[in-house]
């Protein structure tokens, strides 16, 4: 009998479909630190909104700062609040993990994420299509539930 597909099944709350995410320095950075005899900073974590409207994953600076990362680049971001004018945001390479109660965590070893201040909105990040393209998302509005399979 095939093993079950790891998945997350959660209620959709007032803020939408939320998921707990763990952020760490990227695996290549972890290996470089290890080779230099230096420890990797501890992981950080927070609640992210699953956002099919976000082309890439966004992380609040409060989660990125403890990782002691340097920006790997920048990107122009368009949002409804910028009235069509792009805003330049820093990008960082991180390891991203989402836990599952019925299997191994979903982990991306090196993912470029965009820094965006989101904590005042009650979330620590947006889980964008760059991550969602590697999963199956079922949004059941009638039951107010979602399933994320990977």
UniProtKB/TrEMBL annotation:
A Pfam entry, by short name: Asp_protease_2
Superkingdom of source: Bacteria
Name recorded for this polypeptide: Peptidase A2 domain-containing protein
InterPro entries: Peptidase_aspartic_dom_sf
Gene3D superfamilies found in the cross-reference section: Acid Proteases (2.40.70.10)
